[in-house]
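Re: the request from the purification team.
They wanted to know what the chain is likely to look like in 3D before they choose a buffer screen. I agreed to run a prediction and write the result into the notebook, where they can find it.
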Amino acid sequence: MGQMKNRVLTVINIIALLSLVALFFITKSLPFSSAHEGISSSIFSDIFETLSINIIVWSIIYPLLFLFSIYQIAMSSKGGGEDPIGKVGIWFFVAALAIGFSFIKIEISLLIPLLVLLVSLVILYLRVQQKDASLGYRIGTIFPFSVFLGWISIVSVNEFTLYIYNTFTSYIPFSRGTLTLISLSIVVVINFLAVLIYGDIWFSLVGVWTLVEFYFKLSHHVEGDQEIHRLTLAGI
């Protein structure tokens, strides 16, 4: 019964991934690439939209998800403590659905599927952690979701801080620079915790890469200031 369930989940996950790739080629857009619809923005958001990592990281995530699919096929007939399909469960499919909604232009805020994606990836990330995992499990399961969650956590910080600021702008006396400092601080703390708790270098490298590119872009931005420069450099 357990093997049959794993095989069904494997098929569902593969279909979900292939559907996402098909949607990508049909729409020729990146997931959540237009999630920001705010009337106010921070320096971080302005520059974030132009970072080359926006495109490059998705070209890395998709192959990593295929890597996970290949690994789960190889492990679908096996059980034991390193059962990637059992640990992932339906959450990969939920994450794929959330990404799918970002491609389809429907009358809902893109923050809703982004929140669903973030929650599902956090659950996935926590479920697949295993300290004594084999090299194959680390590469085929932990590594893909570390990079994936590392990126989505940064996207979420940008979009949700902006949403809160735009919704409650009359009650929050934040300047663009202050909002940028808050966004950057949250990114740094999240990545630091990933290293401190799980020793997850791959998760944090996504954050470092983002901050490095942001730092160099910031040097050419007219509203860049020394506090943001220092915090970005300290975060790196």
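For the purification team: The two ends are 48 Å apart (CA to CA).
Please add any questions underneath this entry.
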